[in-house]
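Continuing the batch. This is chain 6 of the set; chains 1 through 5 are on the previous pages. Same settings as before, nothing changed between runs. Recording input and output for traceability.
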Amino acid sequence: MVQTPSTDILTFFNNVSIELQAKPENTNQVILEAFVFAAHCDLGNEIIQPILKQDAALQDELWEFRTKDFYSFKPVVGTHESHKTTLKAIVKLVSNVKQRHDIFKTEGYTYNNDERNVYISFLKDETAKLRQLLNILYLHKVPGTPALKIQQFQPIMSNDAYDYWVLLSTDVVVGWEKFLSIYNVLFGSVEPQYKTYVKNFLCDANSNVTAFTFISLIEQFGFPFGKNNGKTALGEEGRVEVTKMMMELMRELASSEMRDHLLTIYDWFKGIERTSTDDITKRANEWAHIIKKSPRTEITTAKITKTDEQQRADNIDLARRAISLFYQRYMVLWKIGPAAREVIKGVDTPGKTRMRDFLTYVLPLDKANLTVVIGVDPKSWDQKRPKVYDFVDTLVNPALQ
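Output for chain 6:
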């Protein structure tokens, strides 16, 4: 696939992600590490684009920086560096990976196992560096920095690590004490000699843990990490923590924001019989086609104004993600163990009616997103659909399982 030459730094970032996910010509060999780097680029775009939209001069400066050699420049990853320095380090790193990828795609490298292994090692190192720089950029909190949600990190996290974090928060920054207390509930207390190291590895100067540093830790040590006390049951302290987490979820479900999300979904399917699977699927696909044709982002200094239809589709997408994340968190709580389930059963919410609404309306939107927006073969839906739907279906229809 031939890419349109980049004319600005934001288009360049987007194209790097696309190019690294393309298979080298004349071979079916796929390098997973290239996809992982591309996923980090996509996440980086979520942070970088809103920041640069407000600063056209900085866009031009970064574009010029990418195309020139700055031999005296040494990217520093300390938290006291300015966001411009961090952005320059990101630009240089991504540009170097693109150049290396272009070389690797040549036939002599693609079919040489030794060169492949060297390239894979290079990608792993650069991905770790990019993640560290993105963490620093995010913590700078410069004007325009978006408030990321943990769902945006799912493509670069293992399932177990992601499930753990959704119990912590929907946000991507949490306090160390909360991080540690919930970890202790689920996996046992980290031994003192490990706890100090883990805290130093994970925390910033304000004793906050970010999803970025969490991913880096488990990449090196796996998850759960370190030794624990051989925990086998949920004690009283654990019950208290589970109750707190459940109450937090219920507050989220009762919030005006969640109410708006639910009404947004209901309004889209208004007038369609809930038993009419074909009509619901057709309506979900209509939404997906709007999303697919809608501008993804503002990648130039000229503002792109979306139509009312496109903005409505964006609101539905936001609602779909928020509702799905709620049920993912609910599922992880349920799976902690019997004691946790007893706590959950004592709370008469979200209720089977609302769960059925989730299966009736949000599931078709998720499927449409995968098959229409992303373009995955519909036949693979059963294998790729999020496990949360099977979980909720089990709760709603236990006798059928």
